[in-house]
Amino acid sequence: MSENIRSRVVTQGSQRTPNRAMLRAVGFGDDDFTKPIVGVANGFSTITPCNMGINELAKRAETGIKSAGGMPQMFGTITVSDGISMGTEGMKYSLVSRDVIADSIETACNGQSMDGVIAIGGCDKNMPGAMIAMARMNIPAIFVYGGTIKPGHYNGEDLTVVSAFEAVGKHSAGKIDDNTLLAIEKNACPGAGSCGGMFTANTMSSAFEAMGMSLPYSSTMAAEDAEKADSTEKSAFVLVDAIRNQLLPSQILTRKAFENAISVIMAVGGSTNAVLHLLAIANTIGVELTLDDFETIRQRVPVLCDLKPSGRYVTVNLHQAGGIPQVMKMLLTHGLLHGDALTISGETIEEILTDIPAEPPANQDVILPWDKPVYKEGHLAILKGNLASEGAVAKISGVKNPKITGPARVFESEEECLEAILAKKINPGDVIIVRYEGPKGGPGMREMLAPTSAIIGAGLGDSVGLITDGRFSGGTYGLVVGHVAPEAYVGGTIGLVKEGDSITIDAQEKLLQLNVSDEELAQRRTNWKAPEPRYKRGVLGKYAKLVSSSSLGAVTDLNLF
Predict the structure, then answer these.
(1) Is 85 annotated as catalytic?
(2) Catalytic residue among 206, 473, 550, 551, which?
């Protein structure tokens, strides 16, 4: 029996003569029409260093697929550079791109009846976009991360792109001069690869490795190292084998896989965006997952890795110290990982980790011993209260005091907020509110890396809180709370806050509170009116119309009928 279970509808029978004629033009021969057709979703782009090395990986994937007995069909998909669009209207397209990527991969694979897909991506939304498509289609699939960037260097320090964002705040505060600012700009991003700390791209690649949808060690490899291309070719072999065995994403992306991913994200100090993306993927595959699950797992998983943005090291250092398999083995040893969860290779997590030592190497301090963690509990706290009845996500790593009560400083957009910070109009003890930046209100839920980095650069990271219905970059740290739901645009309480109102952020009590009476809030709600949509046409207009609450993952296909 032929192995092209899905693609035989376009390759078999006399009525498919025209189909085969077109396939012959792209390289098919007489013996190829019974082979599985494998899509290569190629995220190559020179828009961003995150994706500029991917084309060579895609070619290695093609080689591997052919060697394994499949027929590759390469197609492209988009990316948006978060780092370049940050702080501009363009950033509103970043989260939107997750859905565009998912839609494009689904369209190509299902439109061409492909038997499986290997997706290769780099920048932040490439990973969840590809995984949402894999979950929707439920055909054999594997994800290959384009790889992390190596650190830049200046004045004896390792640099990432976040160093450049923070340098803006330092420069504004008079802490560095023009020459230093320029030197950091020139040295922060030395080559190909995604942003180098445990920011969103490296967080999501780590999560997918933990979930079993990528090969061991692949999530922390440097983009420019030879092992990255070798791992890509190996991934192609594994995928073709999965096609033959009909090993499907629904068998891998189980509740246990999601819990494993959350545990790893907590242990490595990952990005708040992982909460949004895992909720979206779980919704697509049909696994019940809520914000409360993140909080439950946070309370039992320590932060084991000393990684940027709040720590000392970058992802290539984590790779050298043992990578995600070392972190996973530590979690497994202490009963915080499901060892029986299945992976794309057909092996279980426990089988993959058999030869990994229970404790990290003694000659490094990137991955800390179990009894000496960076933090005893995870760093992504789920806060609730009258300011976020559905929930909000706080990143509390690197925070000396996880509680603040202070006067609200209210801004209707990210640009207004950043202008006030750089103009030194924010004082210690202030609680900044940035609203109408949610999934619908933005639309697109922009990341607030520019203002949060400016706060850190100005030396206010321990004394100023920031709350938004938008998102944060994986490079953000400090007392910051995002994903506030319901968002301002749909009548959430964050839209009722007035300048000077008392606000409490309490990560220990998991509380996000507007200290105003219920009667006053009811009166304000009576007077509140939804603003006009900022976009009424095009992709942003469609997105705003369809997108769900961030507490549900900001998905666009929820309850369509």
Answers:
(1) no
(2) 473
